[in-house]
Amino acid sequence: MKSKSEIMKIIRQLEDHIADDFEAQDLDFKQWNDRCREENVKKMIRYAVCMANGGGGSVVFGVADRIKGLENVLKGVPLDVDIPELQKRIAENTVPSLTPSFEEIFYNNHSIRLLIMNISPDTSPYTMLDGTATIRKGKECLPCKLTDEEE
């Protein structure tokens, strides 16, 4: 898991680099979908499971991928997106229940808000309600099959 200061240092480098350059086992960047808030919640649930099964990590929401320049890359997350509601929705849709912590980073006089979803490592395998699971391997979330003993 990356600290808020580590993530802020990486974000400053997005003037000359793309976010994908910094993605790793414990870090991912995702753009917020302004057209469908529910799609963002589903994405958070998938990434919470992926990161938990992969040893924990951070996902920064509100950052465009494959774009350079802070003015272009920092898309943000709407200010009215409620963190406790996100935590509740993720907990309700993961087995066993998983509640990530969130941190906010503000830019451009508080007009751009980024959300950092932090997933602490744990020993349990996690799934979504439908039983599907993914695991973080390098920069990717890959499908994983639970052994018969874990199912």
Describe this structure in words.
This protein has 151 residues and is an alpha+beta fold. It has one domain (4-143): Methyltransferase, Cobalt-precorrin-4 Transmethylase, Domain 2. It contains 4 helices and 8 strands. It has helices at 4-12, 37-53, 70-73, 83-92, and strands at 27-30, 57-61, 94-95, 101-107, 112-119, 127-128, 134-137, 140-143. The strands form 3 sheets. The protein has a 4-stranded mixed beta sheet with strand order 1-2-5-4. Helix 2 links the parallel strand 1 (27-30) and strand 2 (57-61). The longest helix is centred in the N-terminal third of the chain and has 17 residues, at 37-53. It is globular. The two termini are 27 Å apart. The mean pLDDT is 93.
Mean pLDDT: 93
| Fraction of residues in H or I helices | 25-40%
CATH architecture: 2-Layer Sandwich
Q: Which CATH class applies here?
A: Alpha Beta
**Can you list the strand order of the major beta sheet?**
1-2-5-4
How far is the first residue's CA from the last residue's CA?
27 Å
Strand content: 15-25%
Total helices: the number is 4
Taken in chain order, the helices and strands follow as HEHEHHEEEEEE
Describe the main β-sheet briefly.
Answer: 4 strands, mixed
The total count of strands amounts to: 8
* Alpha-beta classification: alpha+beta
Radius of gyration: 15 Å
Output the CATH topology. Answer: Methyltransferase, Cobalt-precorrin-4 Transmethylase, Domain 2
Shape: globular
Low-confidence stretches: none
CATH superfamily: Schlafen, AAA domain
Number of domains: 1
InterPro entries: Schlafen_AlbA_2_dom, Schlafen_AlbA_2_dom_sf
Domain Schlafen AlbA-2: 23-144
Protein name: RNA-binding domain-containing protein
